[in-house]
Amino acid sequence: MPPSTPSALLAAALSRDPARPLLTYYDDATGERTELSVATFANWVAKTANLLRDDLGVQPGALAEVDLPLHWQAAVWLQSCWELGLVVRLGPGEPGAIPRVADVAVVSHERPDDGTLLADEVVSLGLGPMGLARPGSSPTYARALDYDREVHGHGDRFVPDRTPSPDDPALATRIGTLTAGDLATAAALRPPPGSLLVTAPLTTPAAVLATGLVPLATGVTAVLCRHPDPSRLAGRVEQENLVASVGDVGDRAGGLPGWEAVFTGMA
Hints:
The protein is built from seven helices and twelve strands. It starts with 5 loop residues before the first helix and ends in a 21-residue tail after the last strand. 28% of the residues lie in helices and 25% in strands. It is globular, with a radius of gyration of 17 Å. Strand 3, helix 3 and strand 4 form a beta-alpha-beta unit.
């Protein structure tokens, strides 16, 4: 029987081949390139889930608003929420949006505190290379927990208080809530052999699935690219063996077919 939850997908990927490449992250504005194996990804997920539970007291079933740009740490946060049995809602992305209440909100240091974030707890990320704090970088939100400085002290193994169930609500969308089982089933839809380019912002289920769950479920590597430089696409297609993309139409310049249609109906 195939894995039935995001948590089970990670466990299965670890048992198959913990050393295989899972995510490669590029930021063409800074020149950063980061590779994560399944084992390294799982390590970050465990530390983050432990932080959520032990430092913030977040309980299964809580609502987590994840308002992060495309980044390997965003993939870590999504998986960590599901390890703990949380419901993820993707953030509005733009400061000044209509206030929405959540139990915990996850933002980047770049997001200004405009008074619209209504959450019991706020965690802020600097998104620095290798997960390290950028010199002089700190949360905009005065009451936010600084993830860069707090996460490293947490354990590399996470044991949930309750094993996530396929029926658990996992991702809130515009047309309803997807369960953990829905996500695991959709993630098993295999793209062509090769690597999957992701440039889309984390605002849709297609982007969420391509960023972390599809690589866990199918064995492909996701290549996440923030601030993509179109002039580098052709070389990256060859270097990373890119065969499909989830992102802007500009990605098609390298001859990459769009893969978003696989998730039609998951708004």
